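During the reporting period the student researcher (J.K.) took over the structure-prediction task from the postdoctoral fellow and processed the backlog of single-chain submissions. One of the processed entries is reproduced below for the supervisory committee.
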Amino acid sequence: MDNWTTSHDRVLAQRNAEGWMFLIEAARDLRTTGAIAPSSKALARLLTAPVQEHGMQPLNVLEAGAGTGSVTRTLLPRLSPGSRLDIVEANGRFVSQLRRLVRTHPRLVGERERIHVHHTLVEQLDIGHPYDVIVSGLPFTNFTPAQVETIMNRYMELLHPGGILTYFAYCGTRYVRFLTASRAEARRHRAVEEVLADYRRRYATGCWTVWGNLPPANVWQLRRPLPGAVPAALDIAAGVAL
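J.K. obtained the following structure tokens:
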């Protein structure tokens, strides 16, 4: 058996283990897990694209709602030397897996002291420095409108002026909720969408659709304005089908 085959089998085993872990945690508490499968590579690449776009400039990066680390694995090789990454996760079982990922990832030789995994809610994170990029994997549609407002406001507080926030939303959830949820749940979901739509109107700079995710997802990119800047209107006609 050659090294490629051994490595390929190891990756497949890891993906299967992550998939089962997501299903188990979703069954325990879908409100904090928010998904039934890890994010795809295509979704992870779009979410972390702003980190790569900075080139070799050292960055302060925050990943919130990292889950089992499917996006983290794409993010780590994109960090330039000297960058700091804070990873926030509320699920204790996922936190253990994320810390193991940081300890063993070959890309982090000599850089591990710059990677920190925090077992907390992002609203309670108080590191004392702003971020150039925030990557959010939080399941907004599982929260209350007030929670979403608090989280989005905190994201904007944590960003440098000119800093970028990326987050994703599954396609078609509004229609699924309309067909399957109670009236109260449907109202809550609509109110969450209204909160997110308000932030998109003020700060969005791009939106792309990832068809190769389970389920398909839209990736949104928001920018905290520079002082005195007037946000430009966003044309969302174009997207990327992956």
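The committee noted the following: The longest strand covers residues 159-170.
J.K. will present the remaining backlog at the next meeting.
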